[in-house]
Amino acid sequence: MTATPAGLAVNPAPASASDPGPRPVLTLRGAAARVAGRTLWSDVELTVCEGEFTAILGPNGVGKSTLLKLLLGAVPAAAGRAETPPPTAIGYLPQRRSFDPTVRVRGLDVVRLGLDGHRWGVPLPGLARARRRAERERVEEVVELVGATAYAHRPIGQCSGGEQQRLLLAQALVTRPRLLLLDEPLDSLDLPNQGAVAALLGRICRTERVAVVMVAHDVNPILHHLDQVVYLAQGRAVSGTPAEVITSRTLSGLYGSPVEVLRTAGDRLIVVGVPEECGSCGPCC
Question: Most buried residue, 143, 221, 265, 267, by CB count within 10 Å?
Answer without folding.
Answer: 143
